[in-house]
Specification:
Order of helices and strands: HEEEHEHEHEEEEHEHEHHEEHH
Shape: globular
Number of strands: 13
Helix content: 25-40%
Distance between the termini: 66 Å
Structural class: alpha/beta
């Protein structure tokens, strides 16, 4: 009888031990090198940026350690999809991403702009997607430009030309390989930080994009999906107590 009681206790205590061990393991998050939101060193470790600050603050509040890595964007998305990463530090949502990510409440909001070469006679604001017809439109591979834009691409037969980064698109814009490039002002200007001559030759105009929320994505097949309520509560608290504003008002991390 004593032996049976011991086995009974052992059987039910093992899951508890595993749960405690899992709770103490760092959650693995990734992002791309995306100034000023996330910066990485030569080893792919996250070293700073607004998204990094957000995740570290949330981890402190929910008392859960994290490991943060900077990877090529498409690899980061794939790792979150297959569960080898527990989440993505900061991104916008769309239907495709919601298939494999549980999306948090937004931390910040921003909208894409239209970037042109300053001497381009077509450089003007465009308030509907139909006005982009006939232009060679530069986009970043893997970036989310929103469901409205995706629908407009098909509806108006828009011409897209992909490149792997913001900087590469700006360089193609300067060389006349594309007519317009789509990116929000903050990411655009910080990507141009080390290219002052290039920046001086470009101009940004208002586009037909609405502001979208930038969120944390927790992988549905990762270990953090069940923590979405804790993440959301931490984000609400950070918005209410001014932490998000404080982080966004601070000087961004040094350029790397």
């Amino acid at each position: 009888m004593i032996r049976l009681s011991f086995l009974f206790l052992l059987f039910f205590s093992v899951p508890v031990l595993h749960a405690e061990e899992a709770a103490g393991e760092p959650l693995r998050f990734c992002n791309s090198h995306w100034p000023p939101y996330s910066y990485g060193d030569a080893d792919g470790q996250a070293v700073g940026g607004y998204a990094v600050d957000f995740i570290n603050e949330i981890a402190r509040r929910i008392e859960r350690p994290v490991q943060l890595h900077i990877l090529p964007w498409l690899r980061c998305l794939k790792m979150a999809e297959d569960g080898t990463a527990d989440g993505i530090m900061l991104l916008t949502e769309n239907d495709e991403r919601k298939h494999f990510l549980v999306m948090s409440t937004p931390l910040i909001w921003d909208a894409n702009l239209l970037w042109y070469r300053g001497d381009n006679p077509q450089a003007r604001a465009r308030l509907n997607f139909a006005e982009l017809q006939g232009l060679r439109i530069g986009v970043v591979t893997g970036f989310n430009y929103g469901e409205s834009f995706n629908s407009a691409v098909e509806q108006f037969n828009l011409t897209l030309d992909e490149a792997p980064s913001i900087v590469s698109n700006f360089k193609r814009l300067e060389r006349g390989w594309i007519d317009v490039f789509l990116v929000n002002r903050m990411a655009g200007e910080y990507s141009l930080h080390d290219y002052p001559q290039l920046k001086s030759r470009l101009v940004a105009q208002q586009g037909p994009f609405e502001e979208v929320g930038f969120r944390i994505g927790l992988a549905k097949t990762g270990r953090g999906a069940g923590l979405i309520d804790q993440f959301d509560q931490a984000i609400r608290d950070m918005l209410q107590d001014g932490t998000v504003v404080r982080i966004m008002s601070s000087e961004p991390f040094d350029y790397l």
